[in-house]
UniProtKB/TrEMBL annotation:
Species this chain originates from: Nepenthes gracilis
Reactions performed catalytically: Hydrolysis of terminal, non-reducing alpha-D-galactose residues in alpha-D-galactosides, including galactose oligosaccharides, galactomannans and galactolipids
Enzyme Commission code: 3.2.1.22
UniProt record similarity statement: Belongs to the glycosyl hydrolase 27 family.
Annotated PANTHER family: ALPHA-GALACTOSIDASE, ALPHA-GALACTOSIDASE/ALPHA-N-ACETYLGALACTOSAMINIDASE
Name of this chain's protein: Alpha-galactosidase
Lineage of source species: Eukaryota, Viridiplantae, Streptophyta, Embryophyta, Tracheophyta
Keyword Magnesium: no
Alphabetized Pfam families for the sequence: Melibiase_2
Classification via SUPFAM superfamilies: (Trans)glycosidases
Keyword Hydrolase annotated: yes
Keywords: Disulfide bond, Glycosidase, Hydrolase, Signal
Entry GO CC: plant-type cell wall
Gene Ontology terms: biological process: carbohydrate metabolic process
Record-linked InterPro entries: Aldolase_TIM (IPR013785), GH (IPR017853), Glyco_hydro_27 (IPR002241), Glyco_hydro_27/36_CS (IPR000111)
């Protein structure tokens, strides 16, 4: 973990490689398929290589704002990490108001993001970086501080595209126990309908083994529950992924 100070705000450059999510799953290692001859990529024009960059959640949780995102984007560039391929600046949960606007659209929290999300995306793009956002496939996000996209997938996908989003992390909280394959597929279709190439990251926690069904609808899919910045936790998750290694795309 590397910290960078800019304008008095401390931002954490937690560099991540999402390739650990790119696995085809089985519950039993005895059911593994052969590795050779498989290389399928989602036909949305992104994700040819694993995405690398920064996500706000593990360090800041809900304590995010426009200054943090801007200073972190600046630090990715000034540190030289952007030149090495760390190009995603991804905002996680807690970025929107608790209520949608009169037309049903998600609205950035004006206290945290006074310039608006489209303006922030433009700033990130101006540095040669890519802009990521977060939602959940339920009626609310995991923090409970903003609406989820359940029942609003087409509208939210269009909103993300219009604001210049390049990456969507799509969580699994508050989903009313609805079928995950249906929930995640409909968002994939909604994103595709926008015509904008948006990296689609399924954050289903591995509950329903998304590696069995996600390769055709997502660029990456999560295979386990949360990771933390502890060696024991990271090695534990690495061991869990032993089941998936022979199915990697």
């Amino acid at each position: 973990m590397m910290k960078a100070k800019s304008g008095g705000a401390i931002s954490t450059l937690t560099v991540f490689v999402v390739s650990i999510f790119l696995f085809r799953s089985s519950c039993s290692s005895t059911a593994r398929r052969p590795v050779s001859g498989r290389r399928s990529l989602l036909d949305n024009g992104v994700g040819v290589t694993p995405p690398m960059g920064w996500n706000s959640w593990n360090y800041f949780h809900c304590d995010i704002n426009e200054d943090i995102i801007r200073s972190t984007a600046d630090a990715l560039v000034s540190s030289g990490l952007a030149k090495l391929g760390y190009t995603y600046i991804n905002i996680d949960d807690c970025w929107a108001e608790i209520q949608r606007d009169a037309e049903g659209d998600l609205v950035g929290d004006p206290q945290k993001f006074p310039s608006g999300m489209a303006s922030l995306a433009n700033y990130v793009h101006g540095l040669g970086l890519k802009f990521g956002i977060y939602s959940s496939s339920g009626y609310a996000t995991c923090s409970g501080t903003m609406p989820g996209s359940l029942g609003y997938k087409q509208r939210d996908a269009a909103t993300f595209a219009s604001r210049g989003v390049d990456y969507l992390k799509y969580d699994n909280c508050n989903n009313n126990y609805t079928d995950p394959i249906t929930r995640y597929r409909t968002m994939y279709e909604a994103l595709k309908d926008t015509g904008r190439p948006i990296f689609y990251s399924i954050c289903e926690w591995g509950d329903k083994h998304p590696a069995l069904w996600a390769p055709n609808i997502a660029n990456s899919w999560r295979t386990t529950d949360d990771i933390t910045d502890e060696w024991e936790r990271m090695t534990y998750i690495a061991h869990l992924n032993e089941y998936y290694a022979n199915y990697s795309q």
